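Record 1 of the preview.
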Amino acid sequence: MIHLDRASHTPLVDQIVHQLAGLIQAGQLPAGSRLPSIRKLAATLAVSSATVVAAYDRLTARGLAISRAASGFFVHMPHVATTQTPTPPRRDTIDAVWLLRRMLDPKPGMLQAGNGFLPEAWLEDTLSSRLLARLARSGQRAFVSPASAQGYEPLRRQLSLKLGQAGIPAHPDQIVMTSGTTQALDLILRSLLVAGDTVAIEEPTYFGLTAQLRAHGVRLIAVPRLADGPDLAALEAACVNFRPKMFFTQTLMHNPTGTSTDIAVASRLLQLAERHDLLIVEDNVYSDIYPGPNPLHLAQIDRLQRVIHVSSFTKVLSPNIRVGYIAAPPAFVETFIEAKMLAVLATSEFDERLVYELLVEGGYRKHVERVRLRIARQWPGMITGLREAGLRVDAGEHAAFFAWSALPEGVDEETLVRDAADNNILLTPGSVFFINGAPGPWLRFSAASANDPRLFDYLRTRLAALGEQATRKARLVAD
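->
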């Protein structure tokens, strides 16, 4: 009935499970029939009883067998539903949710030209088997005991040291671990804002933040993002006219423009916040891969008095290692911890131990250096390719993670994005980065993904075709 190949690399347990499952599903072992006893099958196959027990346990877990006390194991065919639950149609409006869904669940082989995560090939060298084995040996407590509500204390101490080296004086007790920046921002919103409050945000800005703020029912005031940082005149006017409680900004490697705030603008921004009693949330999720020397943080100048500093390892280390943090003024810490406990109780100590090991052994620093080098190598080719395809690219002095690119006049952004998706290319439309729509058609590209001939060939061909269509329509209207 069962033949075992002892020269095969497939474990004996897997071979037994596979063959028994095949016999059951083919009807050769009918539902209700008794499987051979553990002792009998072990003797027949010349394997240990433990091997047979493991095989039967796996069949039971798959629903193909059941165990009856003092009677043994019996074949069981699970009931298969004959009617299919209708699946609601997927969201078709191009907005933040549409984009996030396609970034997190991409079609096979899709070129994600504007994705905020690093490609898999850039992450393969971060987690060595030696590191994972050491973590498995030393981190057993993380599997069996509750995690700290505030986060793994050794990691918070290491982050305190890391932030201190960047000039941000954050005591470990001022740090709250989160599941990435998305949860960090959510905790801040739940803790410090109520529906109807007014907040100011840069425009363009990260589309996930805008979606979160809208979900919380707050009023949004847009402050234009300039080449050297937020437009302070516009922010001052917003403070005078609308009295926002909070301002959200990205000081380094701004998403989506790739720009960084100038030190003079940063200083004046903090003075403005002091005058108008404005809290500032600084999201510097890409700061570790900033290419220039001595990167500037608002929290560095402010010393965590009215700046709440948010960051994460998810964008740079791995999309599946959901480890972020908030470094905050002491008065807010307990409020954030309470909101975190009510939402998720605690974050994964296992993931936090993994990040801690990467930090203390130097693996994270080496990984970041490799990422910076790769971005620097990719940047010139991407900028050249996009410009030759017909886009206007706003590129700064340094290579950045993102390139903010304007489409040619007359090209409809939504038409292009949908057509690209049909051609297995996911473009990131500029409209999602604005509160009430973009002033013109823009796209965001990632230096980690967009330096690809497939993208340049598609854009060159499609932009020319869309441009001709726009010209013909204009002529028809004129006639």
